[in-house]
Amino acid sequence: MLYCVMIDVNLPADMDSAELAKLKEVERLRAIELQESGKFVHLWRVAGRMANISIFDCESNDELHELLTSLPMFPYFSLKVVPLAKHPSSIK
Amino acid sequence: MLYCVMIDVNLPADMDSAELAKLKEVERLRAIELQESGKFVHLWRVAGRMANISIFDCESNDELHELLTSLPMFPYFSLKVVPLAKHPSSIK
Amino acid sequence: MLYCVMIDVNLPADMDSAELAKLKEVERLRAIELQESGKFVHLWRVAGRMANISIFDCESNDELHELLTSLPMFPYFSLKVVPLAKHPSSIK
Amino acid sequence: MLYCVMIDVNLPADMDSAELAKLKEVERLRAIELQESGKFVHLWRVAGRMANISIFDCESNDELHELLTSLPMFPYFSLKVVPLAKHPSSIK
Amino acid sequence: MLYCVMIDVNLPADMDSAELAKLKEVERLRAIELQESGKFVHLWRVAGRMANISIFDCESNDELHELLTSLPMFPYFSLKVVPLAKHPSSIK
Amino acid sequence: MLYCVMIDVNLPADMDSAELAKLKEVERLRAIELQESGKFVHLWRVAGRMANISIFDCESNDELHELLTSLPMFPYFSLKVVPLAKHPSSIK
Amino acid sequence: MLYCVMIDVNLPADMDSAELAKLKEVERLRAIELQESGKFVHLWRVAGRMANISIFDCESNDELHELLTSLPMFPYFSLKVVPLAKHPSSIK
Amino acid sequence: MLYCVMIDVNLPADMDSAELAKLKEVERLRAIELQESGKFVHLWRVAGRMANISIFDCESNDELHELLTSLPMFPYFSLKVVPLAKHPSSIK
Amino acid sequence: MLYCVMIDVNLPADMDSAELAKLKEVERLRAIELQESGKFVHLWRVAGRMANISIFDCESNDELHELLTSLPMFPYFSLKVVPLAKHPSSIK
Amino acid sequence: MLYCVMIDVNLPADMDSAELAKLKEVERLRAIELQESGKFVHLWRVAGRMANISIFDCESNDELHELLTSLPMFPYFSLKVVPLAKHPSSIK
Description:
Chains A, B, C, D, E, F, G, H, I, J: This is Muconolactone Delta-isomerase. Chain A is an alpha+beta fold. Chain A has two helices and four strands; from the N terminus they run βαββαβ.
C-alpha cells in the first residue's frame, strides 16, 4: 500500500556544522536501510529546496508512522502524508 | 528529468453523464498512451478524492508542458508542478 | 486500519428541492449500509455546517477510495483524508 | 456532547532528552486518567506526524477547556476544536 | 453555554430582487424569533460586509446546529463556530 | 461603537513560571479595570486554546488602540479587529 | 475617524457590456458624490487589477457600513476594512 | 522601471471553442504588439498551467495598469504585480 | 507615483526595554524626516496592532526600496507593497 | 531551460553586523560568478523587501539544485521554483 510523503526539512540556519554533518550521515544511513528493505520505494529531492518527495510501501498506517519516526531528522520535519490508491488509468 | 505533478480534477457536479463517460474514456486512452511512451512513469490516485499524483520523465520544461496540455481533462485541472532532482541518499 | 475523513458538502444553494430530497435519501441509505458493514465506524455532523467528520476502518487505501466514491453525494464533497495510527497513550 | 480536537504538538527539536522523556510520561499518565474517566473517548495518532485527533465527551465548553488545559503538553499545542452534533444518517 | 458564530452571507450578485427581498424578510423574522427565545443573544453586522458575528446560548452542540440550520439563508452561509468558555478575568 | 477583537496569546512555552504568574496577574487586573470602565463589555475564552474573543465599546479607533496596547500581554498577542455595525435584524 | 478599505471587484467576465457600462457609470457617480461629501477621502486603483484601496473618514462604524453598501457595485465586492488610528510618528 | 507580473488565466472549461480560438488570437496579437513596443520585455509560460510570468518595463504604475488592462483576456486574469528594483549583486 | 505599503512590525516580546526605546526613537526621527521630504505622504497605525499602513510618493521602484530599507526597524518588518494607479472615479 | 526562482531571505534581525557584512559579500561574489557563467540570467530585488526574483538557465533540475544550494545564503532562503516553458505569444 503506497503513500506519498512530502517533507520539508527545517534545520536551524545556525546549526553547528559538525553536528549537522553527523545528522546528515545518520539520516543517510537510515534512509538507505529503509530503501533496501523495500519499504521506501522512491526518494526525490525537490529542486532548489531542503525538501523531499518520497513514496513508501507499507502494510498499514501504523507501519508508515513507525518508519517515518525512525528517521533521525524526524524532529526537524514538516510533513504531509497522502495515502495513494490505484488509478484506473495506470498501466502498472 | 523528473517532475512530480499534483492534479485536482474539478469536474462540474452536474456534468452530463454521457459527456462525462466519454471524457473519462479519452482521458484514459491518452494517459495510457503517455505511459507507454515512457514519459509518464507513475500515476496514482489520491485516496478518497478526484485527484492524482504523477511522475513525468521529460527532456525539458517545454516537453512537460506539451504533455500535460495534451490531456483531454486539462481544462478541468488545478495543477502543481514540482521539479525533482536526485536525492543524495537515494540508492537508485 | 483507521482513517479520519473530513467532508464539506457543497450543495448548490439553488438545487431543486425534490432532487435535493432524493439525493439526501440515497446518501442516507448508502451511509447506513456502510455503517452496518462495520467499515464506516463513526459519523458526526460538524455543528452549524453542512460538514461531517467520519472514521472509516478499511483494509487498504484502495478500499477507502472505493467506499468514499460510492457515496451518492461524492461529486459535491470537498474532502480531506487523514490516515490514523495507534497512539502510544491510547487505552483501547 | 462530543468535540473533535485536532492537536499538533510543537516540541522544540533541541529539547533536552531527559526533560522530553519526563514530559511524555506525565502527558501519557494524564491522557490515560482522562480516558478512564470516560471524558476522553478516542485518541488517535496522525500517521507520520507529532499530531493527534481526539474525541472528547464533555458536559460543556467549560469542561472541555478545563480538560485540555490540564494536559502537561498543553503549552506546546496548536489546537483546533470542532463541536460535533448528531448526524441524521448515523446509526448510533 | 455560549458559541461565537461568524457568518459570511454569499448571496449571488444577480439574485432576483423580489426573491432577495422575500428571503431577507423571512431571515429577519426567524432571527427575531430566535433572539426573543433567549437563545440568540447578540447579532452584529461586520462593518462594510455582508457578514455577521453572533453569540448563541444553547444547551448543546445539537441545539446550536438545529438553530443555525433553521435560518432561511443557511444555504448561503460560510460559517465558523467557536465554542466559548468562561474567561478567568471576566467580571460577569 | 463596538469592535470584536480576536486575540491569540502566544506565550513562550518555556517562560519562567514566576514571571508567567506575575504577567497573568497584571493582565487580569488591567482586564478587570477596563471591564469596570464599561469600555470592555465582553470577554470570553476560546474553549481549549490560549485565545480570547472580546467586545469593546469605544469612542473611536484611537481609543480602541489605546485600550488594547495598555494590556500587559499586548506584546504576545496575535490580534484581529473587526469593527461592528448595527444589524438590521437585531432587537437590541 | 479613518478606515482603510481594500476592495476587489469581482465582475463576471461574461457580463453584458451595456449593463457593465451602466453599472460603471452609476458607481462612478456615487463614488464622486461620496468624495465630494468629504467622507471618501482617497480612492486609488491597485495597478493591474480590478481592485481599489480607499480611505474613508466616518463618524462611526455604522456610517462606514452605510456608505460602503450604498455603492452600486457593492454586491460584487470582496472587501476588507482596516480601522486606522493616529500613528505616533505621523506629522499630520 | 521593471515589474514582474504573475497571471493565472481562468478561462471557463466550457467556453465555446470558436470564441476561445478568437480570444486567443486577439490576445496573441496584442501581446506581440506590446512586446514590439519594448514595454513587455519577457513573457514565459508556467510549465503545465494556463499561467504566465511576465516582465514589463514602464514609465509608471499608471502605464503598467493601462498596458495590462488593454490585454483582451484581462477579465479572466488572476494577477499579481511585484515592483522590481535593482539588485546590488546584479551585473547588468 | 504612489505606493501603499502595509507593514507588520515583529519586535521580539522580550526585547530589552532600553534598546526598544532607542529603536523607536530613531525610527520616529527617520519617519519624520521622510515625511518632511514629501516622499512619505501618509502614515497610519492599524488600530490595535503593531502595524502600519503608509502611502509613499516616489520617482521609481528603486527609490521606494531605498526609502523603506533606510528605516531603522526594517529588519523587523513583514511588508507588502501595492503599486497604485489613478482611479478613473477619483476627483483628485 | 528557464526557471523563475522567488527567494525570501530570512536573516535573523539580531545577526552580528560583521558576520552579516561578510555573508553579504560572499553571497554577492557567488551571485556574480553564477551570472558570468550565463546560468543566472536575471536577478531583481523585490522593491521594499529582502526578497529576489531570479531567472536561471540550466541543463536540468539537478543543475538548478546544485546552483541554488551553492549560494552562501541558501540556509536562510524561503524559496519557490517555477519551471518555465516557451509562451506561444513570445516573440523571442
